[in-house]
Predict the 3D structure of the following.
Amino acid sequence: MGVYVHFPYCLRKCPYCDFASYPAEPERIEHTQYADAIIAELALRAPFIPEDSTLCTVFFGGGTPSLWEPRELGRTLRAIIGAFSRRAADLEVTVECNPSSLDERRAAELLEQGVNRLSVGLQSLDPARLTFLGRLHDAEGGLAALAAARRAGFVRVSGDLIFGVEGGRPQSAEAAAAEAGRVADAGVTHVSAYGLTIESGTLFGELHRKGRLPVATDDVIVDSFFAIESALAARGLGHYEISNYAVPGDEARHNVGYWRGDDYLGLGCAAVGTLSRPDGPRCA
Ligand code: SF4
């Protein structure tokens, strides 16, 4: 089974984001207390972990877990590993990162703590679209974060992109494919490409309600989806799930577990999990 840990802090709230995330300066984040809280929650949930479970994946999502002091993230990881009687020899441990909080030193610290996969939120490589999306980094900063992760020793690095962006500089299908291609050419083994969705309760949602948000047409979004698929296929990244592409063998096992319906334990603010119970309903 897998474990998902939610870290709810970000440097700034992106205008499209409806995740449970709160803006905070790194020095104001209660790094140690948050780890203590997760470990306390783990102690309460541990009795419900089936005895014969093997821990296969741990995913630190958010929010921006690359803001978390690596030693506290590592302390949390060791507690999770200790709660299972068995762990997979190739335990996959992923941390979501933003380029604004990932440099070579931070990547090396995460590697030292036992993290072996990074997922970096680039979202775009176009300056105008990055500004529209409210991102804190520029295109060079995004690519530099990927390079820093690889220099630090990470073999499994993923880049996140958002397509179907009309604001800033309207994104054509060709532009979406070119951005995906540049990310793949940066040496990643995995790309996530999500269509921009407008959610209520966000700044974009409010602007959309007032008719003031530029939105891509369905045709552009569909064309972008297939253009990205072709660009990544040409570079050897297979389309293994709606929004995810990987070099064969580098699919995110944690992600695949969600789609297969595997059990996972959720820890932290806003996390959910799905633990089967012996007396619970069974799939046919
Ligand atoms: S960095 Fe990610 S989690 Fe944080 S506000 Fe932006 S989109 Fe949401």
Remarks:
- The chain has a mean pLDDT of 96.
- Residues 55 and 223 are 39 Å apart (CA to CA).
